[in-house]
Design goal:
The structure holds two protein chains of two kinds.
Chain A: H1 22-33, H2 37-50, H3 58-84, H4 89-113, H5 132-153, H6 159-182, H7 198-206
Chain B: H1 12-16, H2 21-27, H3 32-49, H4 55-97, H5 102-126, H6 145-166, H7 173-196, H8 212-222
Classes of the chains: A mainly alpha, B mainly alpha.
Chain lengths: 210, 242
C-alpha cells in the first residue's frame, strides 16, 4: 500500500463518492453525513441521558461500568502514546483521532451512568508507546479486545441501552480495523466477530494495571 | 425522486421496478410504534397476570405476542439478508470483472467472502422464510478501482447504519448475538475500504443508525436492484479467471 504515509482525509466521506451514480453519492452523503458528527453525538447523548442515572437497571449499569473501564484504558493508552511524542505520520494521526473519540465515549458513558468516572487507575503500557510499530501492535490488541467485550454484553443489556451503546460499538470496530490496517493485518479477519465474556474483559483490563 | 425514464432501452424493464425488493422487506419491518405498543402490551400483561384474566386467555395472549415477535424478527432478518445479497453480489461481480489489483483486490476477495457467508447464515437461519435474491445491475460501479472503491465505501457505511437501526428491535437474543457480530464486521469493512480510499476510517466518535426508509431510498437511488423476483439467482460463484 501507499506507505509514504500521507494523512488520511477527513472529508465526511463525501469527497470520495465519485461513482457513476450521482444520485447514490448525494443520497448517501446526505443521509450519512447529515446524521453524523455533532448530530449523532447529540442524539446519542440525549438518548443516553434520558435513560441516565436511576432509571438504568442494575444489570445495564454493571455493563456500562465495564464499558467505562475500557474507555478509561483506551483514553489513557492514546493519551500516554501522544504524550510520549514518539509517534509519527499516519500512526500519530490514528492516535489523535481515536484518542479523541475514546474520550468522547468516556464522557458519553459518564453521562449515561450519571456520575463521573472518577480518577482513572494508573495504566502501564510497557514499551508499547515508544515507537510506531509497538504502539500499533498494542492498539490492535486493545481495540479488538474492547470491541469483543462490547459485543459480548449486547444480549445482557436492555434494548434501549443497546440502542445508545451501539453507536459506540461500530466506532470501536472501525478503530480495530484501522489499527489492523496500519499493522499490515487483515482489518476484518472473520465474517462474524467473536465476543468475550465480562470476566475475560476484566482480566484484559487488569493486565494493564500498574 | 425516481426517474423511471430508462437511459438505455435494455434497462427499460429494470428501471420500472427499481424499488421492489428492499422496500418490500422494509415494509414488513416492525416500526418503533409497534415496538412501543408491544412494550405497553407486555406491561398490560403484567397487570393481567395479577389475576384479571383467566389463565387460558393469558396463555393465548402470550402466544400471540410470541408469534408477533417471531414475525418481526423474521422481517428484520429478511431485510438484513436483502442487504447482504446486494453486497455479496457487488463484491462477487467486482472479482469477476477483474478490474481490481493489489490491496483493493484483496479487500474485495475477503469482504466478498464475508458477505457471502452472511447471506448463507441468514438463509440457513430463516429456512423457507428466507426471501430470494433480487437481480442486480451495478451499472459500471465494479468496472474501475475508483468507482468500486467509492461505491464500497458508500455501501459499507450504509450497512453499518442499517444494521444499527435493527439491533434494538430484535426480540430473540440468539438473533441479536448474530446480528451484533455481523454489525461490527460491517463496521470493520467500512473502515477497511475507507483506509484504502484514503479517508479517515472512523471519522466520528458516534455512528448513527439509519432509518429503514432512508436505507431503502439510498439503495433505490442507485438503481442497482433490478428485478426482485428473479427466475434464476443473481449470485454466481466468482470467476477467478476473470
Amino acid at each position: 500500500m501507499d506507505h509514504q504515509d500521507p494523512q488520511l482525509a477527513a472529508n465526511g466521506g463525501r469527497g470520495s463518492f465519485e461513482v457513476p451514480r450521482g444520485a447514490l453519492i448525494k443520497r448517501i452523503a446526505l443521509s450519512l453525513g447529515g446524521l453524523s458528527a455533532a448530530g449523532a453525538a447529540a442524539a446519542g447523548l440525549a438518548s443516553a441521558s434520558r435513560s441516565s442515572g436511576a432509571s438504568l437497571s442494575s444489570r445495564d449499569r454493571e455493563v456500562l461500568e465495564l464499558a467505562l473501564k475500557f474507555e478509561q484504558l483506551q483514553t489513557a493508552f492514546y493519551g500516554q502514546a501522544l504524550h510520549g511524542g514518539k509517534l509519527t505520520g499516519q500512526t500519530k494521526q490514528f492516535a489523535e483521532v481515536v484518542g479523541r473519540e475514546e474520550r468522547a465515549h468516556l464522557h458519553y458513558l459518564e453521562r449515561a451512568l450519571g456520575h463521573a468516572a472518577g480518577k482513572a487507575p494508573t495504566f502501564t503500557f510497557g514499551d508499547a508507546t515508544t515507537n510506531n510499530a509497538k504502539f500499533i501492535a498494542a492498539a490492535v490488541t486493545i481495540e479488538d479486545t474492547g470491541l469483543a467485550a462490547y459485543n459480548g454484553q449486547a444480549e445482557n443489556i436492555s434494548r434501549a441501552t443497546l440502542q445508545s451503546v451501539a453507536r459506540v460499538i461500530s466506532v470501536e470496530a472501525r478503530h480495530a480495523a484501522w489499527a489492523r490496517s496500519l499493522a499490515g493485518k487483515l482489518p476484518a479477519p472473520v465474517p462474524a466477530d467473536v465476543p468475550i465474556t465480562a470476566s475475560a474483559a476484566l482480566k484484559s483490563i487488569k493486565s494493564y494495571l500498574g | 425522486m425516481s426517474d423511471t425514464t430508462p437511459t438505455k432501452n435494455t434497462l427499460a424493464l429494470a428501471d420500472i421496478d427499481v424499488d421492489g425488493a428492499l422496500r418490500e422487506t422494509a415494509e414488513r419491518l416492525p416500526t418503533r410504534g409497534q415496538f412501543l405498543r408491544r412494550g405497553a402490551r407486555a406491561t398490560a400483561m403484567g397487570i393481567v397476570a395479577a389475576g384479571l384474566l383467566p389463565e387460558a386467555a393469558q396463555a393465548r395472549a402470550s402466544k400471540r405476542d410470541q408469534a408477533k415477535a417471531n414475525a418481526n424478527d423474521v422481517a428484520i432478518l429478511n431485510f438484513a439478508l436483502t442487504l447482504e445479497y446486494l453486497q455479496a453480489a457487488f463484491y462477487t461481480q467486482a472479482e469477476r470483472v477483474g478490474s481490481l489489483h493489489g490491496a483493493l483486490a484483496k479487500q474485495a476477495r475477503v469482504v466478498g467472502s464475508h458477505e457471502r457467508a452472511h447471506v448463507k447464515a441468514f438463509q440457513k437461519t430463516l429456512g423457507r422464510a428466507a426471501v430470494k435474491s433480487p437481480s442486480f445491475n451495478f451499472r459500471g460501479a465494479t468496472d474501475s478501482p475508483r468507482s468500486f472503491r467509492a461505491t464500497a465505501v458508500a455501501f459499507e457505511d450504509l450497512a453499518v447504519g442499517a444494521y444499527k437501526e435493527q439491533l434494538p428491535k430484535i426480540h430473540s437474543n440468539a438473533y441479536l448475538a448474530a446480528a451484533i457480530a455481523i454489525h461490527s464486521v460491517e463496521a470493520r469493512h467500512a473502515a477497511w475500504i475507507r483506509y484504502l480510499a484514503g479517508i479517515v476510517p472512523a471519522e466520528h466518535a458516534f455512528d448513527a443508525s439509519l432509518p429503514d426508509h432512508e436505507t431503502v431510498q439510498v439503495v433505490n437511488a442507485t438503481h442497482f436492484v433490478t428485478l426482485h423476483a428473479p427466475e434464476t439467482s443473481a449470485r454466481h460463484a466468482p470467476a477467478f479467471t476473470g
